[in-house]
Specification:
- The structure holds two protein chains of two kinds.
- By secondary structure, chain A is an alpha+beta fold.
- In chain A, strands 1, 2, 8, 9, 10, 11 and 18 form a seven-stranded mixed sheet that branches. Chain A has a five-stranded mixed sheet with strand order 19-17-12-20-21, covered by helices on one side.
- In chain A, a hairpin with a 2-residue loop joins strand 9 and strand 10.
- In chain B, helix 5 crosses helix 8.
- Chain B is elongated.
- The N and C termini of chain B lie far apart (66 Å).
- The chains are: A alpha+beta, B alpha+beta.
- Bound molecules: flavin-adenine dinucleotide (FAD), iron/sulfur cluster (2 copies) and FE2/S2 (inorganic) cluster.
Chain lengths: 533, 234
C-alpha cells in the first residue's frame, strides 16, 4: 500500500494533520492501534487554552514561558499562543460544541493561568474535539487503517519512506510507503503503569521507533505528575475540584500543602506524606452534593466505581500520578525532524512549547496549532516513491515470527509491573543520582532478559499478549533514554526534581538530546535560545 | 466469586465455549478480565484503553445486556459475551468495521457549516448527542439488525441528528436525504438503544425527531403507505 502522507496516531494531533493534508489534496492514511476515536485525546476534560483579548495573548505567552522554566522556545510559544484564537475559531467552524457564556465561547481558569482562557465542552472537551475531527476527516475521505501496530519507520540514508505495521487481526507484518511520515502517537506517561493517569497504550512506541530510525529525542526526563489521582486506579480527578474548594488532608485531618500551589509542589508534598506511611485524601464534602453533581459528574461516578467512595459524603483517597510527558521526538518549529520526510506532532513530539513543565490546557492547543502546521509541512514533501520491498519489512516480519518462539522462561508482565514500581519510586516525582543509576541497571537487566521472555498465547489472531509484549520492549528501550536524561541533569527544573540537586542551575539552561548511533545511546545538552532572533 | 466468559476462536473446534473463572470481589468487569489475563489465562482476549468510560473500546454484554467493562461492577455468576450483530474476531473482541461504516453511509458529519452566533441553549440542545463515545452498545442492542444488516443504526442516526440540530449546519435536507433509506423509518422504536447507552443518550428519541424533520421536507413513512385503507375492500 502506498499514499502521499501516512500519519500514525489518530488523536487530536494526527487528525488535525490529516484534515489539513487532505484539504491540500493529498491522499492521507491514518493508522491507529485501536479504532480511530480510542485515542487518549478522548480523556482530556479541562479545556483548551486560547486568549480572548490581545492583552491576554501576551499573558498567555508569559504564563507558558514561566511554566516552561527556561526550556520553552519563545518563538514557538509566541506562534502557538498567537494562533490560539484562530485555532478555536476553526474548531468552532467545523462543529465542536464549545460551551457558551452569553454569546461568546466560555472560558475557565486553569492552574498557572493569569486569566480564564481554557475553552471547554463540559468535562468532555477532548472527547468532543476528537469526535468532531473524526467526523470531518471522514467527510474529507481520509483513509483509516485501524488495529495496526507501528513497528518501525522505514528509513534509509536519513530519509523516511514509510512505516512497517503489524496487523493485529492476522499478525501479518505490512509495509505502508509514503512520501511523508508523521508520527502522532502520543506520550509515554503510562510507563509508570498503575501510577499514571494515562490510558493503556501510552508507552511511547512511536518515540522508541523514531529513536531506532535515527531521530533525535529531547527533554525526556521532564514528566509531569498530577497531584490528584484516585488512590487505587490513578484515574484523574481534575483540578476543577480544588478550584471549587476541595482540600487536601492526611488521615489525621492535617492540611499539609496549599491546594493552589503548582502541580509539582503539591505532588511532591503528597508523595512525601505517602512515603512516611500517611494516607492522603481529597476532601470535597464542603462543596456540596449539588455542585459536585453538576460540575464533576464524571469524577463522582468514577470515584464511586473505583474507590467505593461518594466524594460528596466521604474523604476521597488520592495519590499523585504521571500525567504528561513534555519531551519526545525533537522537532523543528515546522514539525520536521533530523530525518528527511519524517515529522512528529502532539505529545510524542518536542517542539519546545512546554519546556520543563506544561501548562494545563496547552496540550490540546498544541495538537490543533501544530497539527495544522505539520499537515502542511508533510503535504509539501515531493518525492517519487518506488514500490519495492524494503529490508526493514523483512527484518520486522522475521522478528515477529521469532517472538512466537522465544522461551518464555521469564514472565514479562511480572517484569513490567516491577519496573513500573521501580520507576515511580526512583525516577518519578523525587529523584536522586544513586537511585536513578539503580533504575538504569534494572532496565539494562530487563533488556538482556527480553530474549528469555516471550508470550504464552501463540495464536496469530488478535494476540493482545503479543501487543503488550511489543509495548513492553519499546518501553524498556525508551525508559533507558529517559533515565539517562534524568541522571545527567544535575539540577531541579520544572517537573524534574532532584533531591540531591534541589536548585535550578544556569549551566543546565539547555535541552537534553538523546539518540542512538549504531545501537549505542548518545546524549548531549544544547543551549536554549533565550531571546527571539 | 465466579463468572462465565463465552470464548471464541475460529481455529478451535468447537470455536465457541463457555469458561468459568474465579475472580476477586468488588471489581469492575475490566479489572476482572485483566486479573484473569494476568494470573489465570494469557489467551483471554478483550479490548480497552481509557478505563474511565470515554474511549468506547470495552463494550460487551453481561447477561444479555450491553455494558462498558470499565464501568460495570461484576456480580456472582455473570455471563460475559461479545457484542452482537458484529462479527466476533476473538473472545470478547468484535469487528466494529461495518458498524463504523454506518457513519459514512449516513453522512454523519458536518456538510456545510457557517458562522452563526450560538448561545448556551443551542449547545445544550446537542450536548447529549455529542457525548457519544462510539462504543457500539446501542448497535448491538438493536433488533433491526436481526432482519436488516443495512440499517444505519442508532449511533449514526444520533450523530446525524446532532448535525441537523446544529444551527451552524446549513444543509439539513441533504442530511435527511441520506437517512431515509434503511434509516429512520426502519427503526421499530423499541428503545433498547436508549436503555443501554452508557452516556445517557436517547437515540430512539433522536430518530423520532429526525422523522419529524423528514416530514418537514416532504418525506412520508413508507411503512404507513397503506394506512387508511387497511387493505380493506368496500
Ligand atoms: C486524563 C487526562 C486528562 C487530560 N486533560 C487535558 C486537558 O484538559 N487539556 C489539555 O490540553 N490536555 C489534557 N491532557 C493531555 C492531552 O489529552 C494529551 O496530551 C493529548 O490528547 C495527546 O494527543 P495526541 O494526539 O498527541 O496523542 P493521543 O491522543 O494520545 O493519540 C495517540 C494515537 O497514537 C496511536 N498509537 C500510539 N502508539 C501506536 C502504535 N504503536 N501503533 C499504532 N498507533 C499507535 C493511538 O492509537 C492513538 O490513536 C489530558 C491527559 C489525560 C491523560
Ligand atoms: S429504538 Fe430503533 S434504533 Fe433503537 S434499538 Fe430500537 S429499533 Fe434500534
Ligand atoms: S449512542 Fe451511546 S451506546 Fe451508542 S455508540 Fe454512542 S455512546 Fe455507545
Ligand atoms: S476502557 Fe475506555 S470506555 Fe472502557
Amino acid at each position: 500500500m502506498k499514499c502521499d502522507v501516512v500519519i500514525v496516531g489518530s488523536g487530536g494531533a494526527g487528525l488535525v494533520a490529516a484534515i489539513r493534508a487532505a484539504e491540500l489534496g493529498k491522499d492521507v492514511v491514518v493508522v491507529s492501534k485501536g479504532y480511530p476515536t480510542e485515542a487518549q485525546t478522548s480523556m482530556a476534560q479541562g479545556g483548551i487554552n486560547a486568549a480572548s483579548t490581545q492583552q491576554d495573548i501576551q499573558q498567555h505567552i508569559e504564563d507558558t514561558l514561566r511554566s516552561g522554566q527556561g526550556l520553552a522556545d519563545p518563538e514557538v510559544v509566541e506562534f502557538v499562543c498567537t494562533q490560539a484564537p484562530k485555532a478555536i475559531k476553526w474548531l468552532d467552524s467545523i462543529g465542536v460544541p464549545f460551551d457558551r457564556d452569553d454569546k461568546e465561547i466560555a472560558r475557565r481558569k486553569l492552574g498557572g493561568a493569569s486569566n480564564p482562557r481554557a475553552c471547554y465542552a463540559q468535562d468532555y472537551t477532548g472527547l468532543k474535539i476528537l469526535h468532531t475531527l473524526y467526523d470531518n476527516a471522514l467527510k474529507l475521505g481520509v483513509r483509516f487503517v485501524h488495529e495496526h501496530f507501528l513497528l518501525n519507520i522505514i528509513s534509509e540514508d536519513n530519509r523516511a519512506y514509510g512505516v512497517t505495521l503489524l496487523d493485529k487481526r492476522s499478525t501479518q507484518v505490512k509495509q505502508l510507503l509514503s512520501r511523508a511520515v508523521i508520527l502522532a502517537t502520543g506520550g509515554f506517561a503510562k510507563i509508570y503503569g498503575p501510577f499514571s493517569t494515562n490510558g493503556e497504550g501510552s508507552f511511547g512506541e512511536g518515540i522508541a521507533a523514531a529513536m531506532r530510525a535515527g531521530a533525535k529525542l529531547s527533554d525526556l526526563e521532564f514528566v509531569q505528575f498530577h497531584p490528584t489521582a484516585l488512590a487505587k486506579s490513578a484515574i484523574l480527578i481534575s483540578e476543577a475540584a480544588r478550584g471549587l474548594g476541595a482540600k487536601i488532608v492526611n488521615q489525621k485531618g492535617e492540611q499539609f500543602i496549599d491546594e493552589l500551589a503548582t502541580r509539582d509542589k503539591i505532588s511532591r508534598a503528597i508523595y512525601e506524606q505517602l512515603a512516611i506511611g500517611n494516607e492522603v485524601f481529597l476532601d470535597m464534602r464542603e462543596i456540596g452534593e449539588e455542585i459536585i453533581q453538576r460540575e464533576l459528574p464524571q469524577e463522582r461516578k468514577l470515584a464511586m466505581i473505583y474507590e467505593n467512595v461518594d466524594p460528596a459524603k466521604e474523604l476521597l483517597p488520592i495519590k499523585p500520578a504521571a500525567h504528561y510527558t513534555m519531551g519526545g521526538i525533537d522537532t523543528e518549529s515546522n514539525g520536521g525532524t533530523n530525518i528527511a520526510g519524517f515529522f512528529a506532532v502532539g505529545e510524542c513530539a518536542n517542539v519546545k512549547l512546554h519546556g520543563a513543565n506544561r501548562l494545563g490546557g496547552n496540550s490540546l492547543l498544541e495538537l490543533v496549532v501544530m497539527g495544522k502546521r505539520v499537515g502542511e509541512s508533510a503535504a509539501a514533501v515531493s518525492l517519487e516513491i518506488e514500490e519495492k520491498n524494503f529490508e526493514r519489512t523483512l527484518i520486522d516480519s522475521n522478528f515477529i515470527k521469532a517472538v512466537f518462539t522465544l522461551p518464555n522462561s521469564i514472565d514479562f508482565m511480572e517484569r513490567k509491573e516491577f519496573l513500573q514500581k521501580v520507576l515511580f519510586h526512583n525516577a518519578g516525582i523525587v529523584r536522586e543520582e544513586l537511585a536513578l543509576k539503580g533504575v538504569l541497571s534494572v532496565i539494562r537487566q530487563h533488556q538482556k532478559e527480553l530474549a528469555f521472555m516471550g508470550i504464552k498465547d501463540k495464536s496469530p489472531l488478535y494476540n493482545t499478549e503479543l501487543i503488550a509484549f511489543l509495548e513492553y520492549g519499546n518501553m524498556v528501550e525508551l525508559t533507558e533514554a529517559m533515565v539517562v536524561g534524568a541522571v545527567q541533569r544535575n539540577e531541579s527544573r520544572g517537573a524534574h526534581y532532584r533531591k540531591d540537586h534541589p536548585k535550578t542551575k544556569e549551566e543546565y539552561h539547555a535541552h537534553t538530546f538523546i539518540w542512538k548511533e549504531d545501537g549505542v545511546l548518545c546524549a548531549d545538552f544544547v543551549k536554549q535560545n533565550i531571546t527571539k532572533n | 466469586m465466579k463468572i462465565k466468559v463465552r470464548r471464541y476462536h475460529p481455529h478451535f473446534a468447537p470455536p465457541t465455549i463457555e469458561m468459568e473463572y474465579d475472580i476477586p470481589q468488588d471489581v469492575t468487569l475490566l479489572q476482572a478480565l485483566s486479573h484473569i489475563k494476568r494470573h489465570i489465562d494469557r489467551t483471554l482476549t478483550f479490548s480497552f484503553m481509557c478505563r474511565s468510560g470515554v474511549c468506547g473500546s470495552c463494550a460487551m454484554r453481561v447477561n444479555g445486556k450491553e455494558v462498558l467493562a470499565c464501568e460495570y461492577k461484576v456480580q456472582e455468576n455473570d455471563i460475559i459475551e461479545p457484542l452482537q450483530f458484529t462479527p466476533t474476531l476473538r473472545d470478547l473482541v468484535s469487528d466494529k468495521k461495518s458498524a463504523l461504516e454506518t457513519l459514512e453511509r449516513s453522512k454523519a458529519y458536518p456538510l456545510n457549516m457557517e458562522e452563526v452566533e450560538l448561545e448556551q441553549a443551542d449547545i445544550a440542545f446537542l450536548q447529549r448527542q455529542s457525548d457519544c463515545i462510539l462504543c457500539s452498545s446501542c448497535y448491538s442492542s438493536c433488533p433491526v439488525y436481526e432482519v436488516n444488516e443495512a440499517f444505519l443504526g442508532p449511533f449514526a442516526l444520533t450523530r446525524v441528528y446532532r448535525y441537523v440540530c446544529d444551527k451552524r449546519e446549513q444543509k439539513k435536507k441533504e442530511h435527511i436525504d441520506a437517512i431515509v433509506e434503511n434509516g429512520i423509518w426502519d427503526c421499530t422504536l423499541c428503545g433498547n438503544c436508549t436503555e443501554v447507552c452508557p452516556q445517557g443518550i436517547d437515540p430512539k428519541n433522536d430518530i423520532l425527531m429526525l422523522q419529524s424533520w423528514a416530514a418537514k421536507f416532504g418525506y412520508t413513512n413508507p411503512h404507513m403507505g397503506s394506512f387508511g385503507s387497511f387493505g380493506l375492500e368496500f
